[in-house]
Every structure is written in C-alpha cells, then in structure tokens.
Specification:
Shape: globular
CATH topology: Peptide Deformylase
CATH class: Alpha Beta
Number of strands: 7
Strand order of the largest sheet: 1-2-3-6-7
Radius of gyration: 16 Å
Bound molecules: nickel (II) ion
Low-confidence stretches: none
Order of helices and strands: HEEEEEEEHH
CATH architecture: Alpha-Beta Complex
Strand content: 25-35%
Number of domains: 1
CATH superfamily: Peptide deformylase
Length: 177
Amino acid sequence: MALLPIITLPNPLLRKMSVRVERVDDALRRLADDMLETMYEAPGVGLAAVQVGIPRRLIVIDASGKDEERRPLVLINPEILELGPDMRLHEEGCLSIPDVRVEIERPGSLRVRYLDREGKLKELRAEGLLATAIQHEIDHLNGRLIIDFLSRLKRDIIVRKFKKQARTGSDPQGLTA
Ligand code: NI
C-alpha cells in the first residue's frame, strides 16, 4: 500500500465530472486500498478518487468514531436512491481545501446503491455522519465542493486565497503526500 498525494484547490481536476468505473479489477482494488491508507493518514472521514488525481467514480469512507473499530467502506459508482426527509447540520471540512470548514445542511439519511470492492452490487442505508460523508464524497464525483454552499462572495475570497498560495508556493498544511 502507498500514500497518495492529495490535490487541493485551485487544481481544476476538482471541478471535473468523474467517469464511471467499468471494471472492478486488482488495479482498482489497489487504488481503493491506497486511498483508504491515505484517508486514515490525513486523517479524514472520506476520500474521492478525483482527490488523488484520478477522476473515476470511486470513494472510500470510514465514519467510525475515534475509539471504535475501523469500518472502511469502498463505494464504486455510488448512486443515491433515496434521501430522507430530515435534515442534518454538520460543519464539514475537506482534505482538498485545508483549514476551511463550512456548515452544511443535508438530508440526514439516505439509501445508496454501489459496487463493493469485489464488484458486487450492494445497497446501504446510512444516517448521521455516514450519510453526510457519502453526500460530500458523491459531490466530489460531480465536481462539487463544500465552498459551493457558501455565498459567491465568501467562495471567491477562499478561492483567491488558495490561488495566491499556489502562486507563492506556500503550503499551510505541510505536505499531504
Ligand atoms: Ni472533500
């Protein structure tokens, strides 16, 4: 397994629509395992393949608590089938937008269909942090970021800051790779 470099704003790949995975093979499983290792190391609750520079519809998530046993999830070509009626507010961060947190209200429960690590079709009901994380990561597959939930003015300020950091080469978070 290997740690993968995480791309950050303003990398234009983050705005790209990820393409469907056509075949679940060993290379894809290796990528999923590397993404999980990268996510745990960061640390983060979830990671989309596009965040390591590979715009394919693959996400990994672990919404278990700090002192709980790990519950790694690999979701390939995830599709939300149903969103619950109750909303959940959560302050979200993103490994591709270091040091920025945004309060976002999203449906608090959902049903998602996906292929698992073995390529088997699965369905999962999620609520709480897991439901939030699944929506956050699927947003990544569609080129959507947490700053899109902000007003245009606030979003522009953040984007400008990251563009400037990229120009001057400063990396406030240290190396993520
Ligand atoms: Ni993110």
